[in-house]
Specification:
438 residues; alpha/beta; 19 helices; four-stranded mixed β-sheet; globular; disordered N terminus; six-stranded mixed β-sheet
């Protein structure tokens, strides 16, 4: 009996020591987390942080939120979030972790200020690379090394106001609909509802930038670069690109199914759709938390297609600053946010199309009682998702593309002139974004 009691005592001591060691090794301290978006998105990240704190009460997360987004801005507007990050990195006060889309994170990766996350992921017991949709990892990979962990896998889709469709007796969009179908629908939804001779309801709201034009270029058999696998320069001077470019800008300039420049500056495309005065909106998943607050019924449909179907990947990754002084706690936050539990928290808010296959296919995302009713569409279009070209300085190139595309969209220059000016600017060996700080 005495021997058994001794063994039991030893076992209890070992167990107690193990708990103490584990507690001592548990990450502690503060982690700064930068994110961006509108008020609904801020609430979504606050929900995520609250769930994290219940599980890791010894880690204090400081959310630094920048209102606004790079999806809706005019060419001469500053990207406030990117500007804030650049200033904080330059002053050696970067965040521990920040969200950044794959089209822009290279700005920081090229400067060597990001901590590669492949080694952390390899050691994780919560997540592994094979848990993710394969489409989302390569865009965040440089030189064979995963740099940031992607949280979402959204394609660009069409949001539509079912009430306006019903009132105009127009069929809801269906898979396989064409550019012609899309234009006819937009025309049918563009109306002077007050009878004062002025259009006050438009068929379409779309941001005139390259992220919206790219899918239509691909759908028309065009490419943006000279070599998709190993691009060296932008190449927009092809019949396929020019035709898609012209069709896109004609939606506003010729067909008048979208608001003009003055109207767009007065009210953003998001607000216009949410107010119920636009039939269709081209956007990614991130607007869902905001639209769940509107009173009218709405749903999502795939982009119209021409020669083939295509859409653009929208994916934000959690990136860790190499200068972080608390990398263990920072990784704990990143790991949790991208674990099944963490991604489920954001999925329930509507903010993301989870990058984890299991979560994306679960009721937490598909949410049959929540809008959009057709959330499964976001999964159905993943095989048609493509990424922006892997060109150096792509974020700066995109700024140039957007500025000239916007001018063509609002009738300030021709498509041919816009393409020529873009090509001359960005293919110059000494190209530099004119708005970049020296």
């Amino acid at each position: 009996m005495l021997r058994k009691l001794s063994l039991l005592l030893v076992t209890l001591i070992i167990a107690a020591n193990a708990v103490q060691v584990q507690a001592a090794q548990s990450p502690k301290g503060q982690v700064s987390f930068y994110a961006f978006g509108d008020s609904a998105e801020k609430a979504a990240y606050e929900t995520l942080i609250a769930a994290f704190n219940k599980k890791y009460p010894d880690i204090a997360v400081k959310l630094v939120f920048t209102p606004g987004e790079d999806e809706i801005k005019f060419g001469d507007a500053e990207d406030a979030y990117r500007q804030r990050l650049s200033l904080d990195f330059a002053s050696n006060t970067p965040p521990d972790v920040f969200l950044m889309n794959y089209r822009e994170y290279g700005i920081f990766e090229e400067k060597g200020v990001l901590e590669p996350l492949a080694p952390y992921l390899a050691k994780s017991t919560l997540i592994k690379s094979t848990d993710f949709y394969p489409e989302v990892l390569p865009p965040f990979t440089r030189d064979g090394q995963l740099v940031c962990i992607p949280q979402n896998a959204s394609g660009v889709v069409v949001y539509y106001n079912k009430a306006l469709f019903d009132a105009a007796k127009v069929d809801y969009p269906k898979a396989g609909w064409t550019w012609d179908d899309f234009l006819k629908t937009a025309k049918a939804l563009t109306k002077d509802t007050n009878g004062d001779g002025k259009v006050d309801q438009y068929g379409l709201a779309v941001q005139p930038d390259i992220t919206r034009l790219m899918p239509f270029i691909w759908q028309n058999g065009g490419e943006l670069v000279d070599n998709v696998a190993a691009p060296t320069k932008l190449d927009l001077d092809t019949p396929e690109v020019k035709a898609a470019f012209q069709w896109f800008v004609d939606l506003q300039g010729k067909e008048k199914v979208a608001p003009d420049e003055l109207q767009s500056r007065a009210q953003s495309i998001n607000d216009r759709f949410a107010s119920g005065t636009v039939g269709m909106l081209i956007f990614s998943r991130r607007i869902v938390p905001t639209l769940r607050q509107v009173k009218f019924d709405w749903d999502v449909a795939p982009l119209p297609q021409n020669k083939k179907a295509a859409t653009l990947l929208y994916s934000d990754g959690y990136c860790m600053s190499k200068a972080s002084k608390n990398k263990d706690a920072t990784w704990t936050l990143i790991e949790y946010a991208n674990s099944p539990e963490g991604q489920s928290v954001l999925a329930k808010t509507g903010r993301t199309v989870p990058s984890l296959k299991a979560v994306a296919e679960s009721a937490d995302f598909l949410a049959p009682t929540e809008k959009p009713a057709n959330s499964k569409l976001f999964l159905d279009i993943i095989p048609n998702i493509r990424t922006s070209p892997a060109l150096d300085k792509w974020a700066d190139i995109e700024e140039q593309l957007n500025a000239h595309l916007e001018e063509a969209y609002y009738g300030d220059k021709s498509v041919d002139d816009a393409i020529e000016e873009i090509m001359n600017a960005v293919n110059d060996p000494n190209f530099k974004d004119p708005d970049a700080k020296p």
